[in-house]
Fold this sequence. Notes:
Helix 1 (2-27) packs antiparallel against helix 2. The chain is an alpha+beta fold. The chain has helices at 2-27, 64-94, and strands at residues 29-34, 39-44, 49-54. The chain has a 3-stranded antiparallel beta sheet.
Amino acid sequence: MKNMGNMMKQMQKMQRDMAKAQEQLKEETVEVSVQGGLVTVVANGEKKILDIIIKEEVVDPEDVEMLQDLVLTATNEALTKVDELVNEKMGKFTKGMNIPGLF
């Protein structure tokens, strides 16, 4: 029973550490710029887009599709970077296990 008690303590510590790491991810941000900084997207570790910055020179009423493509590309790259950040921070707790819904 002593081993079971130690295991429970370790699990509780891991849960506290994971909760702390998840809170820290809320404060972490990634920033992605495309086309030499014409469009920049900033996202946090919760996959929330915090800012989209569009340089004036890319706004062309005759070519809205290009602007849409740049925003889409920057946003997708930012979200990919957030996934990498989360895997880096939280991966130490799961050690490669794929636990659906954990993150």
